[in-house]
Write a structure and sequence with these properties.
single chain; alpha/beta; 7 helices; 8 strands; 14% strand; HyI-like; Sugar_Epim/Isomerase
Length: 274
């Protein structure tokens, strides 16, 4: 089965200032789904109306980052911020419900400034587990799924708490792992995809190390990765979370080539269904 791709509106179409306009541009480019980080400043009703007009599904949203000015990027594992995390989670659930989104990326957060990772590891783990239990209970009531994303701390974010797939393996079925296609931390990407496949609820792609289009120069062989995901039977969305090197539409040649190689027309639908 061919893969389904989702346009990350926090990264693609940066020439357009508003999320609804980016969503409409993504739909015109053939995407059947979109995703975004926390959609600050965009009322839920506006985003939902744009999605309904374009007949596009909203596949994923993040929990709020906390206080960016204080260096925060999520709160789930940050000691002393439990009340703020729960308030943000409830806001994310309310927004997701309003726009028809069933998946929420629960952001773990960063090691607090001025502290040593090893010194606070135990306290952060305890906080993380407590908040995930609360999250699982809340999301199960909403028929939603929480996703966790390990972020590499060599290049992307040295202070992010959750940085390996082993560390991010959840026990509760309401929380699935989200996997960004990257070999920076662990290498052996194929083996990791196969090993953690039952826990993968969402995938995001970007070339390494430049984080541009999948067909830009880099270390990852995306045609092979796409074939591997198809062979594994992956049916979730593949989020395009990369920084376009230029115009977003011009950089989507890799996606059009993928559709053509699978005998699909613009938008990834079967030519036989036309």
């Amino acid at each position: 089965m061919a893969l389904r791709f989702s346009a990350n509106l926090s990264w693609l179409f940066p020439e357009l200032p508003a999320l609804p306009a980016r969503l409409e541009a993504a739909a015109a480019a053939g995407f059947g789904a979109v995703e975004a980080a926390w959609p600050a400043g965009c009322p839920a009703q506006e985003l939902r109306a744009a999605a309904e007009r374009a007949r596009v599904r909203i596949a994923l949203l993040n929990t709020p980052p906390g206080d960016p000015e204080a260096g925060e990027l999520g709160l789930a594992a940050v000691p002393g911020r439990q009340a703020a995390f729960r308030q943000g989670l409830e806001a994310a659930v309310h927004y997701a419900r309003a726009v028809g989104c069933r998946r929420i990326h629960v952001m773990a957060g960063r090691v607090p400034l001025g502290t040593d990772r090893a010194a606070v590891a135990g306290e952060m783990e305890t906080t993380f587990i407590e908040n995930l239990k609360y999250t699982a209970d809340l999301l199960s009531q909403e028929d939603m799924i929480g996703l966790l994303e390990p972020i590499n701390n060599r290049i992307t974010d040295p202070r992010y708490y959750l940085n390996t797939p082993h560390q991010g393996k959840p026990d509760n079925k309401s929380l699935l792992q989200r996997r960004r296609i990257s070999k920076i931390m662990d290498g052996n990407l194929s083996r990791n995809l196969e090993t953690y496949f039952p826990l993968i609820g969402h995938i995001q792609i970007a070339q390494v190390p430049g984080r541009h289009e999948p067909d830009s120069p880099g270390e990852l062989n995306f045609p092979y990765i796409f074939e591997l995901l198809e062979s594994l039977g992956y049916t979730g969305y593949v989020g395009c979370e990369y920084a376009p090197k230029g115009d977003t539409l011009e950089g989507l040649g890799w996606l059009r080539s993928y559709w053509e190689s699978r005998g699909l027309q613009h938008g990834g639908t079967s030519k036989a269904a036309k």
